[in-house]
Amino acid sequence: MDASTITKPRPSSLAAEAADAALSPTAPRSAVRARPVVLGLVLPVALALGWEAAVRLGLAQGRLMPPPSRIFEAFWSLARTGDLWTHVGATLGRVLAGFAFGALFGTAVGALAGASERFRWFFDPTLQALRSVPSIAWVPLFLLWFGIFETSKIILIAVGVFFPVYLGVAGAIEGIDRKLLEVGRVFRLSGFAMVRRVLLPAVLPAWILALRSGLGLGFMFVVAAELMGASEGLGYLLLDGQQMGRPDQILAAIIAFALLGKLCDGVLVAIGTPLTAWQDTRRGRL
Amino acid sequence: MFVVDRLTKTYADGARALQSVNLAVEEGEILAVVGGSGCGKTTLLRLVAGLDAASEGAITVDGEPILGPHPAVGIVFQEPRLLPWLTVADNVAFGIQDLPRAERRDRVVQALDKVGLAEHARRWPRELSGGQQQRVSIARALVARPKVLLLDEPFSALDAFTRASLHDHLLALWEASRPTVVIVTHDVEEAVALADRVVVMRPRPGRVFETISVRAARPRDKLAPGFDKAKRRVLNALDRSLRPTEEHPNPTAGGAELWW
Ligand SMILES: Nc1ncnc2c1ncn2[C@@H]1O[C@H](COP(=O)(O)OP(=O)(O)O)[C@@H](O)[C@H]1O
Ligand SMILES: [Mg+2]
């Protein structure tokens, strides 16, 4: 979506040449941030090492809850045979396709709802009602309607992505500061210029946030979709692990899910951060 | 010449914010508008800026009617209203995107220089103090070279010290192109320090109560006896304007002039 290219503050334009740059004081931040990260790692690492030691020393069996080394082994063998990448690719493809549709419709409908009160009165109650349906409840219906293959999965994910994006965008547009719009009016911006120069930049942070929560839900829904029946994908790995009685494979798939989700969110954040550097808040990173 | 002719505004809820306000402001004149709260000062400026429509009456700038936002009219709001996603320089340039690049840059550099923010050109608005932000906002209005600049209590949120220095910045900018200035304020000292004429309004319905001329060269010495005298005159008029209507049958438009 090209909002990103439009709304970037243009340091290369006037400002760059205007005067000696006063560099913003952002340098020492990474050092400060390192400490909480280390602190946050203590507990999981300690638990993992503790469990590993307990199993090795024979204090625990580790059959249902395999120690980290076995999980890693399972993960590694999946990666080495290339199976992991097939599954990751399948899952990622579904999530991205569903995300694309959901984000597109969520943004469009959210923009309409935010801009027009009538549209909101007419559609919002219905959408809110649909939103309160637990997503998994759709699965049987979608299977009937769209078959057991990719279509139903992607639609399920798109439905999951749609709602947070819709809500975020509608709320952001509705909440735009009227006072800033008036600045645009004073300088006689055309409708299009008003959207490009005031509306889009104003809703961009909320939009990125909405996309991030949409993506998060997309990952939740892809599990649901794949558990319903798939021959590949990380969700299939989960189910397969259960049927084969291999908790190490299940945990390896869970870890792959976590990594993949984090990675995708990281990509969104990396795209969004430079575009919203002007914000007055220190955004929590990732 | 900027003329407001029998301007009347009744809001949808029936509030009579302005009734038959007449003003004629010379080119390059600085007019201050004072008055109790609710006497229609903001309404007046919003009508002139074309942000709201008048119920009756007309506004013209050099004979041209103002029916909506107009390039001849610039406005500075009570809050700076900077766009947080634009740098200081880009904020100043916001209203002059149609100009050629070089021209645009020259104007921005000059304006930022005049308000003493040249070294902050590349900062975000949030990195500036309230007074600095308001200076950016004034620069943004003035780079578009309006014939009439409206300011609605632009310094009311600032401390007295900052306010005084902003007066100097405002006058420096004004000096460069000498637009007509209409500044709304609740600070009588500010009105007397800046204006050629001070218009005192009275509420319910909002109308002009009295006009007091202040003839003295700028920058004005706030310790001069004449300054105090002018201040007292305005305060006195303000005081009378807030009394019940019966007591002032005929407001003295264009009232006695004051020299020092
Ligand atoms: N948008 C509005 N709708 C209805 N009444 C308004 C509106 N804006 C202002 N008024 C009323 O008009 C009168 C003048 O308001 P205003 O112009 O803001 O006064 P001032 O700026 O002098 O304090 C007040 O009585 C106020 O309540
Ligand atoms: Mg006001």
TrEMBL record, chain B:
<dbReference type="InterPro" id="IPR050166">
    <property type="entry name" value="ABC_transporter_ATP-bind"/>
</dbReference>
<dbReference type="Pfam" id="PF00005">
    <property type="entry name" value="ABC_tran"/>
</dbReference>
<comment type="similarity">
    <text>Belongs to the ABC transporter superfamily.</text>
</comment>
<keyword id="KW-0813">Transport</keyword>
<protein>
    <submittedName>
        <fullName>Nitrate/sulfonate/bicarbonate ABC transporter ATP-binding protein</fullName>
    </submittedName>
</protein>
<dbReference type="InterPro" id="IPR003593">
    <property type="entry name" value="AAA+_ATPase"/>
</dbReference>
<feature type="region of interest" description="Disordered">
    <location>
        <begin position="241"/>
        <end position="260"/>
    </location>
</feature>
<dbReference type="InterPro" id="IPR017871">
    <property type="entry name" value="ABC_transporter-like_CS"/>
</dbReference>
<keyword id="KW-0547">Nucleotide-binding</keyword>
<dbReference type="InterPro" id="IPR003439">
    <property type="entry name" value="ABC_transporter-like_ATP-bd"/>
</dbReference>
<feature type="domain" description="ABC transporter">
    <location>
        <begin position="2"/>
        <end position="228"/>
    </location>
</feature>
<dbReference type="GO" id="GO:0016887">
    <property type="term" value="F:ATP hydrolysis activity"/>
</dbReference>
<dbReference type="GO" id="GO:0005524">
    <property type="term" value="F:ATP binding"/>
</dbReference>
<dbReference type="InterPro" id="IPR027417">
    <property type="entry name" value="P-loop_NTPase"/>
</dbReference>
<keyword id="KW-0067">ATP-binding</keyword>
